[in-house]
Known about the structure:
Elements: H1 2-19, E1 36-42, H2 47-63, E2 68-73, H3 81-90, E3 95-99, H4 122-129, H5 132-140, E4 147-153, E5 158-162, E6 177-180, H6 184-192, E7 196-199, H7 205-210, E8 216-219, H8 222-225, E9 235-242, E10 246-251, H9 260-296, E11 299-302, H10 306-311, H11 313-320, H12 326-334
Parallel strand pairs: 1-2, 1-3, 6-7, 9-11
Antiparallel strand pairs: 3-10, 4-10, 5-8, 5-9
Amino acid sequence: MKKIALLVGVFSLILLGLSGCGNLATVTPTDKKEVITLRFAYASNSQPVIDVMKEFGRLVEKKTAGSVKIQYFPDGQLGGERELIELTQSGAVDFTKVSASALESFSKEYAIFSVPYLFKNEEHFFKVMVNEKIMEPVYQSTANLGFTGITYYDSGQRSFYMVKGPIRTPQDLKGKKIRVMQSETAIKMVELLGGSAVPMGSDEVYTSLQSNLIDGSENNEFVLHTAGHGSVAKYYSYDEHTRVPDIIIMNDAIKDQLTKEQETAIYEAAKESTIFEIDAFAKAVEEEKAISQKMYGVKFNKVDNTPFREAVTPLHNEFKNNPIYHELYQEIQAQGGQ
């Protein structure tokens, strides 16, 4: 019930923000007669997220009365997340959805989301993500590169999952080789917790777990069944070290092809797809856990993350005392209350 109440509150905040922008955009066929097709490429994703990206396209088409359509290039057909960002930057594609961590090398602001235990809990995370004062400068931080963020998707919490046993304390990570995303902050986090960080792409993780090249990885629950990692790594430990959002980015040059009404419709469709995604993602997580337990025998264990939080204090101090991140860090922390 608490989860449902939280989601309802988040939905209300987002809808309030949309309604504050005036009437929702509706484009009549006479506004622009030709049909514009925009390209949306994405890497491999779980089914609910794929469904949400399609919902974005449906909403765009509906809100523009069919004058703007979305064409999809799914499942990494055009490359991994870094390649997709570069393709969006160049205008070869118009939209992509990537992890905020993948955007770190394009904009320093996105590195803040890789700080472990940045958010006190899920409610704190959602409160920050719907705060335009905080998020709009982050979305616009890549404008000089030719693309900007237009909304976020919940990607859940990230925890450690291992081949040979659960993680209960940081001591359990000592000497263990842990796959992380190609994020400097994620590498430092694992090192502070006593592990050995191995940055690699998501497509390499399964075989690396299977061949004992790595001892474990960190991600949300969807890697267990959807990516099949639960057949090899059967211990999932809820230390919940990060909540890294996914970000939809858009090539800014496409605005030259659009009427103002069409542009507004795209932004509205993006925000509304976020509302759809939060609910779909939450339900799918529970289904993923149940399937992983039944199919692979994955064991889930709760963790007292207090010693984990204490171990990564140096990373918090690094961001808090850095003039680039200080204001953003403080604004995010202020949203968490006392």
